[in-house]
Amino acid sequence: MLGLIYICVIYSCVQIGQTGPCKFDERCQCSKTKTGYVDVDCSRKKITRIPNLPESIVFLNVSHNLIDSISKGIFEAAKHLLTLDLSFNRLSSINIATFNGLRKLRYLSLDNNKLVYNNHTFPTKIFRQLEFLSHLSLKNNNIRSSSCSSFPDKTIVDLSVLETLELDASDCGENFLGKRFRSLRKLKSLVLGNNLHFSMSKMTFINTKFLQNILLHAIDEISFTRKTFRKLRYLKHLEFSFDSKKGGIMSPLERLASELRFTSIETLKLGHSTMPFQTFPLYIFIKELYTKNITEIYITDNSGKAGHFPVPIGAPPPTLHILDLSNNGLIRFTLDIRHITRLILKQNLLGDFLSTKSYFEKKSYGDFSLIKFIDISQNDIKELAPFTFDSQPLLKHIDLSNNEIQDITFNLSSLVELEFLNLSYNKIKFFNERTMRTINILVAHKQLTIDLSQNLLQCTCKTIPFLRWMIERNVLFVDLQGYICTFENGSTIIMNPFEYKVLLLEETCKSYIGLIIGGSMALLVVIMTVIASLVYRYRWKIQYMYYMTKGKYSYRKISPEDDDEYTYDAFISYSDDDRSFVFKDCIEKLEKEENLRLCIHQRDFMPGQDITVNITNCIHTSRTTVCLITRKFLDSYYCMFEFNMARMESIYSRHGRNVLFLVFYEQLQPKELPLVMLELVQKQSYIEYPNDVQGNIVFWEKIKETLRTNVRA
Questions:
Q1: 240, 442, 639, 667: which has the fewest C-beta neighbours closer than 10 Å?
Q2: Are the C-beta atoms of 151 and 123 separated by less than 8 Å?
Q3: Cβ neighbours of 519 (radius 10 Å)
Q4: DSSP state, residue 599
Q5: CA-closest candidate to residue 84, choices 118, 103, 110
Q6: CA-CA distance, 571 to 269, in Å (whole number)?
């Protein structure tokens, strides 16, 4: 926060603009502002003295040079100078008249010189001309002096409007900030640092009761006694930032929370420490500060092994809105964040924990959080639990960058206020259809920004819908033209311009898809043709097997008295037009005279059964099938069915033995016969019905002999 003060002062001068050239020392950069004043930057030029300054100068930066002294009266002409940066030089002393003429100066930096804190280096009334100085920085000057070398308070007393002071800390006890600091009634911010060990007591800030901001930077070890901060009733911002290389130590921790009860603390920052993280948050969140006005807590960069955040620790203060626990080595974190609006957990080890758990500890079913910003980047996250962002309807910004995420496993549907989703530096190849549908609903009435940069997207025919969706939907993708895509062959390209590269991929896929579809259709036609041919070729075999199997469970076999395996001696297959011949002649000649058992469908079929099942079973339970061939027989579907079933019976059930006997009741030409019947006629015997009496006698004798032979067989 205090660092912004310096930036803003410079910004007010530089940002005004460079509306024209100005003539000055050729080693420096000079620019004119819109109001006609001059900004001069002479930093890092290896100069050894300050050049002569124009009267119109308002900003001067001579930092990072080799200046070891300042000429008398050098600033007298610079009556309008507001900002003066003399940091990172070799100054070891300052003359009492050095700053003469700088009556309008607001910001002065003497950081990183060789100015030891004593009356010789900083004589009394050295700052008497600086009537409007509000920010004075003297850091990194006193670190080579003795352990107790405080800044002379007789010198500082002239800075009556000073608001921010940056000093090197020293172990001087109650003398560190002398009595004359009481005159600095506008002093609000104090930055202390650069001491290996800094001890504070109840007397340290006794003369600076109006302080609102205290920053302790780059100190290895900080200790304080009881009542150190108790008198600072206006204190709002307290920051401890230790040496990041060594890891700072602050003790005792619980005393800090106790001390802050008496202040107006709003922001607490603790960074680069080795604190026992498992216990300290208990004091910060629920024991001492619950009823105070604290709104922001930053506990970051803990070099120790924080591990488990205390679970559960109860609800934090309802006034707390910002919680930053970055880079602490956390492997577990659960907290009641109902009132927190900004939660930062980046650079931890929460990947495994968040794959099955949520960081939001709800006390009851209907609880929801006011959180708007969540940062869980750099946590080695491979996937998030589906309910990770549930009950957080106000979320606007989610940062999941620098993880190992491959797919969107978490639910986004309830995040109606979501504005920015950072998924950069992950392993996402594409969004699935479910994720795209969810995002489509979210962006129906507002725009969503998604950062997928530094993910290796997949450019295949399968992912074209995703790539096209990226272009057409109301989603703004950060740096879209710089996205990298990989093809199926492993090659990668930069998608610039993105839409054109997608069009090329679509054209390539169209040719592939046409070829694939054409080939597939051709292959399908071939397969269907082969199947159809096989089915047609073996159609009677297939039907025979089917009806035989079906009849096995549906046909009740009638056993003869002699327990013969066949029920009938012959199955008579005929057209209905010839039934008079069957009932008068066949029954008379074969059943009554020869005592043969005939199966005649109009008499012997089982009622209630399918006709095809009856036919198949009767043929199977008959020794012989006699087909009465006429033109009507050839035209009848069921007659030809009986013929073919009898033929299949010969092949598959009777082991090739002929059981089919053909009787041509009409004179037929060979061309009138089906090919399969003609082949059968050429290979096997048949009989024709005669038209005379003598022939009739021979006809019936041959039939009787044939049937008797089959009976004996």
A1: 667
A2: no
A3: 10
A4: E
A5: 110
A6: 105
Residues near 538 by Cβ (< 8 Å), separated by ≥ 6?
A: none
Task: Please choose, from the candidates 411, 363, 421, the residue with its C-alpha nearest in 3D space to the C-alpha of residue 388.
Answer: 411
Residues 6+ apart with CB under 8 A from 691: none
Residues in a beta bridge with 167: 192
Cβ neighbors of 298 (< 8 A, separation 6 or more) are 239, 267, 268, 269, 270, 271, 322, 324
For 42-196, list the strands marked E by DSSP. 57-61, 83-85, 107-109, 135-137, 164-168, 189-193
Element (H, E) at 340: none
Has residue 188 got a pLDDT over 50? yes
Q: How far is CA 205 from CA 164, 170, 186, in A?
A: 15, 13, 15
* Fold of the domain built from segment(s) 1-107: 3.80.10
Partnered with residue 221 across adjacent β-strands are 197, 249
Per-residue burial over 531-542, b if 16 or more Cβ lie within 10 Å, else e, is eeeeeeeeebee
CATH homologous superfamily of 539-712 equals: Toll/interleukin-1 receptor homology (TIR) domain (3.40.50.10140)
Element housing 297 (H / E): strand 296-300
- Quick one: three-class SS letters along 18-81? CCCCCCCCCCCEEEECCCCCEEEECCCCCCCCCCCCCCCEEEEECCCCCCCCCCCCCCCCCCCC
Place of tokens 């989610």: 398
Handedness of CA 375, 380, 384, 385 (dihedral sign): negative
Q: Is the pLDDT of residue 23 over 70?
A: no
Identify any residues that bridge with 450 across adjacent strands, giving them in sequence order.
421, 477
The rounded distance, in Å, linking the Cα atoms of 107 and 125 is 18
pLDDT computed for residue 2 by the predictor: 46
Backbone angles phi, psi at 694, to 5 degrees: -60, -40
List the alpha helices (DSSP H) in 86-244. 153-156
Partners of residue 214 on adjacent β-strands: 190, 238
Q: Tell me the one-letter amino acid at 148.
A: C
Nearest to 209 by CA among 232, 184, 191, 179: 232
User: What is residue 556's predicted lDDT score, i.e. its pLDDT?
Assistant: 45
- Residue 40 identity: V
* Rg, C-alpha atoms of the chain: 51
372-to-337, 341, 418, 539 alpha-carbon distances in Å: 11, 5, 9, 72
Q: Specify burial of residue 558 (Cβ count, 10 A radius: 0-12, 13-18, 19+).
A: exposed
- Residue identified by tokens 């990947």 is 351
Q: Which residue has the higher pLDDT, 685 or 19?
A: 685
Beta strand 296-300 with 598-600: parallel, antiparallel or unpaired?
Answer: unpaired
> Can you give the pTM of this predicted structure?
0.69
Q: Which residues pair with 217 in a beta bridge?
A: 193, 241
In angstroms, the CA 331 to CA 302 distance is: 13
Q: How far apart, in whole angstroms, are the C-alpha atoms of residue 309 and residue 685?
A: 99
Three-class DSSP category at 363: coil
Instruction: Report the b/e string of 637-650 with b at 16+ CB within 10 A.
Output: eebbbbbbbbbbbb
Q: How confident is the model at residue 677 (pLDDT cuts 50, 70, 90)?
A: confident
Residue 362 has pLDDT above 70, yes or no: yes
Per-residue CA distances from 410 to 347, 385, 389 (Å): 20, 6, 7
Tell me the pLDDT band of 244, cut-offs 50, 70 and 90: low
Q: Which residue, among 76, 120, 73, 112, has the nearest Cα to 94 in the 3D structure?
A: 120
Residue ranges covered by each domain of the chain:
1-107, 539-712
Q: Which of 438, 500, 439 is nearest to 467 (CA)?
A: 500
pLDDT confidence of 126, banded at 50, 70, 90? very high
**In the chain, what is the straight-line distance between the N-terminal and C-terminal CA atoms, in Å?**
114
**Which tokens go with 697?**
């006698």
Q: Are 154 and 131 in contact (CB under 8 A)?
A: no
Q: Which H or E element spans position 177?
A: none
Name the DSSP class of 146. -
